[in-house]
Amino acid sequence: MSVRDLVVLGSASAVPTKARNHNGYLLRWDGQGLLFDPGEGTQRQMVRAGVSAHDLTWLCVTHFHGDHCLGVPGVVQRIARDGVSHRVDAAFPASGAEYWERLRHAAVFRDTDVIRARPVSGERADLDTGGAPFTLTARRLSHPVEAYGYRLEEPDGVTMLPAELDARGVRGPLVGRLQADGAVTAPDGRTVTLEECSVRRPGQKFAFVMDTRLCDGVRELADGADMLVIESTFLDEDAALAEEYGHLTAGQAGRVAADGGVRRLVLTHFSERYREEDEHRFVEQAADAFSGDIVLVHDLDRIEMPARRRG
């Protein structure tokens, strides 16, 4: 059974709290596992969440501030220790390659050769997903150090219409040939096309936006996303601090989601300055601009992708 969901391994910002670990987000997508921004403690959070190193096929680091990458050594060493045999691609800003190497080889361990470095550079980078059923794009953001957001996009497909197939006598192996070739000859000699017997099924889209000010990259990543995971480090009254440190407020996250036609807005990366009783205010400020589904995460939450859009 295919699974498409987000496992939240940590949701704090620079300083963890008793309730929130440093960052860590595992997107499970039909057997693929994309681990975004493994902060300190991610390996233990994976154990608590019931996920393993064998579930990982990608490590995606947005930038090299510690709360987004200090879990890399433990995750890498767990991949090696557990004998993961499939390839694990590691995407990160090329300008931080020195930090990647330090983290990758931070301690003595029996190394593994399955991890493949995939440094990204420029305003936009399209990553080779090695035949996975989606594209993965990195887009430059606006932060005091070079940072990238990521967007996963599934190609559009089709949904077959049983009544239309039956009316044309297309059954059994002919259905598969119709899907593969776009047209088949029905038993009565008629040519039947795929367009006659199907409707477009829009591919799903997922966007991951961490530490950044508002910029074109944020908007492009969010555009049309079924799920947008986005930092909302500050409340709106602290917008000046957000701008100074290169972050977003809850209200800005809501406006990004509204402007981009996002379906599910996932708020995370909360500053330790706020208390638990302030949490509802993040949702309220985002909701001032965005009327769709808003999820404020807690560690170890599992958030499902929304149901598919209809064509």
TrEMBL record:
Residues in Metallo-beta-lactamase domain copies: 20-126, 199-270
Pfam families reported in the protein's UniProt record: Lactamase_B, Lactamase_B_2
EC numbers, comma separated: 3.1.26.11
The protein's required cofactors: Zn(2+)
Gene3D superfamilies: Ribonuclease Z/Hydroxyacylglutathione hydrolase-like (3.60.15.10)
Active site as annotated: D67 (proton acceptor)
Binding site for Zn(2+) 1: H63, H65, H143, D211
Cofactor note: Binds 2 Zn(2+) ions.
InterPro entries tied to this protein: Metallo-B-lactamas, RibonucZ/Hydroxyglut_hydro, RNase_Z/BN
An annotated Gene Ontology molecular function: 3'-tRNA processing endoribonuclease activity
Reactions the enzyme catalyzes: Endonucleolytic cleavage of RNA, removing extra 3' nucleotides from tRNA precursor, generating 3' termini of tRNAs. A 3'-hydroxy group is left at the tRNA terminus and a 5'-phosphoryl group is left at the trailer molecule
Matches recorded under CDD domains: RNaseZ_ZiPD-like_MBL-fold (cd07717)
Residues noted as binding Zn(2+) 2 in the record, renumbered to the chain: D67, H68, D211, H269
Keyword Nuclease: yes
Keywords assigned: Endonuclease, Hydrolase, Metal-binding, Nuclease, tRNA processing, Zinc
Assembly with partners or alone: Homodimer.
Name this protein carries in UniProt: Ribonuclease Z
Family annotation (NCBIfam families): PRK00055.2-3
Role of this protein: Zinc phosphodiesterase, which displays some tRNA 3'-processing endonuclease activity. Probably involved in tRNA maturation, by removing a 3'-trailer from precursor tRNA.
Protein family membership: Belongs to the RNase Z family.
Name of the top EC class for this enzyme: hydrolase
